[in-house]
Amino acid sequence: MSHNGGLNFYLGNNPGWRETMFLRPGLPFRKLVLEAEPHRRSVDERNAWWWQRAKREIADKPVVWASVLLTKAIWSVNNREIPRNEDYRCRIDDGPLRWIGALPVRYGLVLPWALVGAALLVRRGRDGARVLPATWLALHLPVIAFIVADRYRLATWPVMCACAAVALAAIGPTWRAWKARRQRPSAAWLLLAGGLVAWVPIDPRTAKDPAWCLHVDGNLALMEGDPDTAAQLYRQALALDPEDWGARDFLARTLFREGDLDGAAALMEPLVAWFPDHYPTLYFMARLEERRGNLDAAADYMGRAYRVPGDRTNTGVRYVRLLVEAGRRDEAAAVLRADPALARHPKLAGILR
After folding, report:
1. CATH topology for 210-348?
2. What pLDDT was estimated at residue 2?
3. What letter would DSSP give residue 108?
């Protein structure tokens, strides 16, 4: 979890965790992260900010948090591999990773045997027998406490398989002892039924998301220099999920490069309304409107980008120039009076003469 521990804890423990836990890299995640005002805080300060926010929301609704932990505990032992950031299921329909989908061993098949093996080891209680189940528990609890995801649960697989091997190895001796009436089977074997929890239906959002798969394929096509295929894939992704803001942004920028300025603008307008203070989006819209010949709109967007916190000197230069080109010299003068450092910029020397 490193320096993102506070953020990761918040993602998996706030009242809206079902949304935040599934935020992927891109605009929705960026929008949330900006709530910590990264322009004013160091990495450590941002991390502490998220810890404090999570603790506040937990304290406000402790019963809700208890239900969150219970739900995550059930999810954490589900047969489904819940994705985080990247969904491997997008890659197993075809191509070189198809073999992964054909693997016969699944979590739900191993879990019941692992539970029995862990219980047998705990009951044995000698020669370090409890180290394996203790290690399994130590690796599994953070998954519940933070974010339930396949890549975090992966660390538990080796010890879980070792515990399962203990149970499988005990089948023969247990059967022979019971048949010879020397010893009744341990109650630990009842935990085989406990493995049924792995097959409890969980939230549909943990299932494969075809829209996200199309989005990723579009990214790959763009990286491979095939903008036509990328645009087609982004359109398909948006048809399935109109709120895939990343696909909307990628498609708009692809259309912009191809010269379809009106199409790009139509795609970007809902995004600007949803994320009104996102600097890259505002800057892009200013460039787009300038290319369309709408200097007033371009200046307005550039002004909004300039006012986003951070070092925006170069943006300020573009803003003042656009105001002058749009005939709004009084506004340009007001901007320069309010920002003496910008007024001294060599690229703006004599611009209002």
Report:
1. 1.25.40
2. 59
3. H
pLDDT tens per residue, range 14-37? 999 999 999 988 899 989 988 887
Would you list the DSSP string of 305-353?
HHHSSS--HHHHHHHHHHHHHTT-HHHHHHHHHH-HHHHT-GGGTTTT-
The number of CA neighbours under 13 Å toward the Cβ of 103 is: 11
Give the predicted TM-score (pTM) of the model.
0.84
Dihedral (Cα; 118, 124, 129, 134), 10-degree rounding: 40
51-99, pLDDT tens digit by residue?
999 999 999 999 999 999 999 999 999 999 999 888 888 888 777 878 8
Counting residues of the chain whose pLDDT is more than 70, the rounded percentage is 99
Which amino acid is located at 136 in the chain? W
What are the structural domain ranges in the chain? 2-60, 107-202, 210-348
Please say whether the beta carbons of 114 and 167 come within 8 A.
Answer: yes
Residues 6+ apart with CB under 8 A from 169: none
Could you tell me the CA-to-CA distances from 181 to 98, 123, 176, 296 in Å, in that order?
Answer: 49, 21, 9, 92
Structure tokens at 49: 């900010």
Q: Write out the two tokens for 349.
A: 């020397």
| Phi and psi, residue 105, nearest 5° | -85, 125
- Locate 216 and state its tokens: 């990723």
CA 348/CA 343 separation, integer angstroms: 7
Q: In the chain, which residue ranges form alpha helices assigned H by DSSP? A: 5-13, 17-20, 27-33, 43-60, 62-76, 98-101, 107-124, 131-145, 150-153, 157-179, 191-194, 210-223, 227-240, 245-258, 261-274, 279-292, 295-307, 313-325, 329-338, 340-343
Q: Structure tokens of 235?
A: 């359109």
Ramachandran bin of 2, using left for φ above 0, alpha for ψ from -120 to 50, beta for the remaining angles: left
Q: Contact, 261 vs 276, CB < 8 A?
A: no
- CA end-to-end distance (rounded Å), the chain: 56
Q: Name every residue whose Cβ is closer than 8 Å to that of residue 118 and which is 6 or more positions away in sequence.
A: 132, 133, 136, 163, 166
